[in-house]
Amino acid sequence: MSLTFDSYSTPLPGESFSNEKIANVTFAEADIMVTQNQLPHILPNDSIISWVFDTRVPTESTAITLAAQESIPCREDLLPITQGWYQAYAAGFRSVYIDLPNLGGPIWYHFSKACLHTLSLIRLIRDFNNHLPHLVSASKILQHIQASATLPSECIDDLRGNRVTEPLAGFHVTQTALHTLGCLLNEEWASEDILNAWSELMY
Predict the structure, then answer these.
(1) Three-state DSSP class for residue 184
(2) What is the pTM of this model?
(3) Coil, strand or helix: which one is 97?
């Protein structure tokens, strides 16, 4: 029985930078990852020189895993690939060659690897693109609170142990993750969820 594309292309839950891994990252861990350069590096838009789907299934670790400080395509550059990968999978393709600048030639990426469990580097890269702003926001929040010295150390320790994706506590209507509080720093635009939470406090 052949696997569906979604089953085939879903990364292992324990894979570095997977959705499941990021969901359990704490503020303290996010701060370390950001400040100590323990995250992949997202290349600027239009960094992909060329790409093509391939029928072969690579087994090299670089083709199926995502490493810290690795240079990866941005979400926008991946759109043509992710928009066409359902049709490509149905046609028998199982990987994609991506030519990126200054990386020693083309890179052979899995968009999936069929084995006892499923892996997907392209999906992993896309998901990491989505999560990076959350990790950076969490790091900024923690650094700001620690530098301001306005909260007791016990409260700061509690925040350090909270998950970045944990919902903002004490609200019945608004369900927003703690990392979204970062939009209140540096006079950035406040997200709609934060404004909804603020409004709920005024009920």
Answers:
(1) helix
(2) 0.79
(3) strand
pLDDT tens readout for residues 43-91: 899 988 888 888 887 776 666 778 898 888 899 999 999 999 899 999 9
**How many angstroms separate the Cα of 4 from the Cα of each of 9, 82, 102?**
9, 16, 35
> C-alpha dihedral over 94, 99, 105, 107, to 10 degrees?
-30
**Residue 160 tokens, joined:** 């350090």
Give, for 74, the enclosing helix (H) or strand (E).
none
With residue 53 as reference, give the H or E element that holds it: strand 50-54
Distance CA 84, CA 5 (A): 12
Which of 7-16, 44-53, 93-102, 191-200 has the largest mean confidence? 44-53
Per-residue tokens: 68: 């810290």
CA distance 121 to 127: 10
Sequence ranges of the domains in the chain: 5-130, 133-201
Lookup: tokens for 69: 């400080």
Question: Which runs of consecutive H residues, i.e. helices, occur in the chain?
Answer: 5-8, 19-23, 27-35, 61-64, 75-90, 121-148, 153-161, 192-201
Give the separation between CA 181 and CA 140, rounded to whole angstroms.
10
